[in-house]
């Protein structure tokens, strides 16, 4: 039955797909003329006619998990030019007679591999939702198996969240310049086109190739921005969109990195109150002020002489950086600081609980991105900078001294992480974006889902996306901890999101749910998880969205 209706559907889809792409003006090229538009439409028409050659993704993967590779234009302004690969995957609906359509997904990033997302979605979605959708995954352009980009970076060059030190700032500037130069030298023709806008266009081209009028979508973290950009470029193709742990489009991307510092301060204050209320058990101080002093005394001690933690010297900067994420779960942060006190006093301490400060929980996360398909070891970082710098070069100052001043000022305003977030980044030396950043402002229906205490995309970020998407409704989990909400076993949140995916009806008004001990435990588990469910690939890193 599907084959019989495919031809007319594609005829409609081709025209609908191409018009918005060609009508979108860019920073470096005028809107195409009628003649050039016709030529470009003809070139793109060849892409839409592709028939994916589906086959089992891996020998040891479930038989129903299928993969294929399609071709997409590197530059949509010149669709007859260079082509790149887009690796795609699917798990078909478990009940074709109940099938509603396709459900795309993205795990976050930028730089996160999404090819295995259908396996994770199959584990998490209720059977009723799996009956409704073909689950569609893909590695975004430049990522994983989708013509992966590389800058030939050494591991130490990938360490990018650097605290401000007066004596080291010139070296940090040299590092940022070197990363940008290496990326330009290695992949200068490709990186300008590894952008969120082009990934959204890839999604819509894939929609047309699959013969679908619309797509539904679940995106996490960076994936919320990708989803929002899709709704802006292709408002008529967005069906049921779930945007979980949301990015503020107006702050992509320098401002989003700075959110990490701004969001950590209220979380730190919450932690001091929590620990003080339990001083009899933990002994960190009887008042929030005393708990605060305990922490900063440890930082000062480690600044003077690194504290030995599990055989590893841990500096005050290491402690500040680790505490940034830890404080969003007060119990986790408290237990970590208790053990840090022991280590600082030369007593035996739990290495597991000190992992917040050593980073051992995420050890190997970046390297795991290089899988059997010979993905470059720096692919996650190279594709991250391509998007973070290339989506909106105007957000990044070209004056290194401005970063010095911002880092000094923000360390004063946000002492835990301000200088890490605001100091120099390779984007200061990146080439100008090939087209302007997307201004998201539409009435497309969508569901924004947000924990109150999210270390990567704090609550105000989710609220900003909700305000920007005027047709959206928002689910806020009061007391919710962790980055990534759905599903977490909370009947309120899971029920609202699943109901929307099943029937397409948004709640009549915004929904407020209360976190439970179990749902927060699931959130913390998700935050620490090394790999995407059902996949050998990393789910997300502490320095990504």
Walk me through what this model shows.
The protein is α/β, with parallel strands linked by helices and 545 residues long. The chain has helices spanning 2-23, 34-48, 117-124, 127-132, 169-187, 196-209, 222-233, 254-276, 279-282, 288-304, 316-326, 330-344, 355-358, 379-390, 400-413, 418-422, 459-468, 491-503, 517-528, and strands at residues 55-56, 66-73, 83-91, 101-106, 133-138, 215-220, 238-244, 307-309, 312-314, 446-453, 472-481, 511-514. The longest helix has 23 residues, at 254-276. It starts with a helix and ends in a 17-residue tail after the last helix. The relative contact order is 0.14.
In spatial order, strands of the major sheet run 1-2-3-5-4-6-7-10-11-12
Main beta-sheet strand count, sense and barrel state: 10 strands, mixed
The class by helix and strand makeup works out as: alpha/beta
How many alpha or pi helices? 19
Strand content: 5-15%
Q: What is the CA–CA distance across the termini?
A: 41 Å
Helix proportion: 40-55%
Count every beta strand, where a strand is a DSSP E run of 2 or more residues.
12
Question: Which ranges are low-confidence, i.e. pLDDT below 50, for 5 or more consecutive residues?
Answer: 1-17, 22-36, 362-370, 529-538
Mean pLDDT: 89
Radius of gyration: 23 Å
**Could you state the oligomeric state of the chains shown?**
single chain
* Mass-distribution shape: globular
